[in-house]
Structures are given as C-alpha cells and as structure tokens.
Amino acid sequence: EQIRCRHCDDELFTAARSGGYYAGALRASVLALKRQPEVSGRLLELITVVASAAPLNTATLILPVPLHLERERERGFNQAAALASAIAQKISLPLNETSLVRVKHTARHRAEMDARARRESVEKVFEVAHPRRVRERAILLVDDVMTTGATLSACARVLLAAGATQVFALTIARAK
User: Fold this and answer.
1) Which pTM value belongs to this model?
2) Which string of b and e fits 6-38 if b means at least 16 CB within 10 Å?
3) Residues in CB range of 131: below 8 A, 6 or more apart
4) Which of 24, 64, 79, 153 fits as disulfide partner to 11, beta carbons 3.0 to 4.6 Å?
5) Mean pLDDT value of segment 50-68
6) Which helix (H) or strand (E) holds 107?
7) Cα separation of 47 and 103, whole Å?
C-alpha cells in the first residue's frame, strides 16, 4: 500500500499502478488492444491482480479514460473502455463509461512531447458529465499506458472537483 516510486508525487491521482513497463509482452498487449477490443486472458489476470491490491482495491467505481468522439469513431472503440469493462466484470465493480468525457480533440501523436507539453495538451480536455454519479466515490481510472501521468492527472482533477473522494490510476504499462 505504501509503495511509491516518487514519479507521481506531483500528480493529482491518489495512487497509480501498472502491470509493468511498456516493453516486451506488455507493449505487444497494448498495441494489440489498440487494434481489437479484446483483452487476453493472461493480460486480464495480470491487471486484475494489480487492481485487487491495496490501495486500488478500495475503489468503488471503474471509469475508463475517454477518447474524443471523433477518435473513437475512427478507431471503432475505446481501448481503455474495453479494458475497464473486462476488469469490472472480473472484480465485480460497477463500470461507468458516461460520466467522464473528453470535450477537446488532442494531437494524435504526442510521443515527441516533453512532460510540460503533454500536460498543457490535456488541460481543459476532460469534463464530468454526471457529477452525482462520481460524488463520494473512490474511482479506479483505467487506461492502457501511463507515459508522464498528465492525462490521468487531468482526469483526476475534474473527478475530484466533481466530488470523487479518491482517484486511483490503473494502466497496463508505464513508460520507464
């Protein structure tokens, strides 16, 4: 519960956990999930073990990081929503895919951006559409990869402002 890598100390989420680093099999799993909304059994097993450990196991509601509607139409699905749905079923937590929304379209390729540019690119991008559904809830916020934490922190900012008590970030992988 007290394990802290210190990379996220300035972020707004309560705690963050990942299945491992974005390399090898985890990288391949992330890329596969971006092509097809199917979570493999091995990946689901790994990520639910992480979700079931303290402090993430105190979450009462699961939310995926949303895609902008335009991007979701292009891809045909939201990979974070596919992952969140599989986790929610496996650990029997309610899933909410409608309360957190992405209201601005952001640049597709942010790999070249430094941490500051990434943070600026997600400012005022997210909103809570249904505040009463997140109020007084400990949120498990799910995404595929955490690079700098900027997106997860931007989501946490609006969820906490809407009355969530805590926001835990869960990703398949994180950048080194």
Assistant:
1) 0.91
2) eebeebbbbbbbbbeebeeebeebbeebeeebe
3) 99, 162, 163
4) 153
5) 96
6) none
7) 28
